[in-house]
Amino acid sequence: MTTAVLGSMLKAIDFVATNVPGMDRPAHLAGATVEQQFAFAPPSGAAFSAALLSHLDHCTLGLVIDHAAVRDPEVLAACIAEGFEEVLEVGRASARRPRAAKKTRAPARPRNAAH
User: Does the pLDDT of residue 81 top 90, yes or no?
Assistant: First the structure.
């Protein structure tokens, strides 16, 4: 029933995006170290769904693409990869740049203080 209700609500939706925070520390499952997780967005009836999942210091992006709605999914995936690379490069450049010392401000005076 939940699937039917959700599916009927999403009929007019073209794009679904979700960001799921993953594990932020090492984890184990049945004695084995979890090395990687994979993101996926459950099929929702939308033309395009994207799910971002973080795991330690990595993220994965899972795409569900309706080939009837998106004529060239390879181009779409390449554009998304290019966009992420641009964002990562901004982060790398920021990490390389030395940080300026924080400026301290004088305490604010009360607004109704006499001059």
Answer: yes
